[in-house]
Amino acid sequence: MSDFIDMTPTWKSAAMIYVAAIQNGTPEGVKAGIAGINEMAAACDSLNEKITAMNDEAKTKGIGKVESMSDWELEDDAVMRAEMRAGA
Q: Is 48 buried (19+), middle (13-18) or exposed (0-12) by CB count in 10 A?
């Protein structure tokens, strides 16, 4: 049994939180909301780059197209999530 509960928000929930901060927040909240949206966009771009690379690799191996990260069995999903959170 795990010693913690993962309360990481979904992408949609995080976006809604950032939008609320931008629309209703203090100047610092607005800055944080904009930074959060930019961070999410960078993570999405990174995932898209990985999917493109996987598709390129799949083509050379004669494997079908990758539609999403869940189409591939990841050796260590926890490492990937940690990299995404760290902006790697």
A: exposed
Two structure tokens written together for 57: 């690799």
CA distance 76 to 20: 34
Please tell me the predicted confidence (pLDDT) of residue 53: 87
Residue ranges of the chain with pLDDT lower than 70?
Answer: 1, 64-88
Domain range annotation of the chain: 11-86
φ and ψ of 6, to 5 deg: -75, 110
Extract long-range pairs of 80-85: CB within 8 Å, 24+ residues apart.
81/8, 84/43, 84/46, 84/47
Q: Do residues 55 and 65 make contact, with C-beta atoms less than 8 angstroms apart?
A: yes
Instruction: Please give the single-letter amino acid code of residue 84.
Output: M
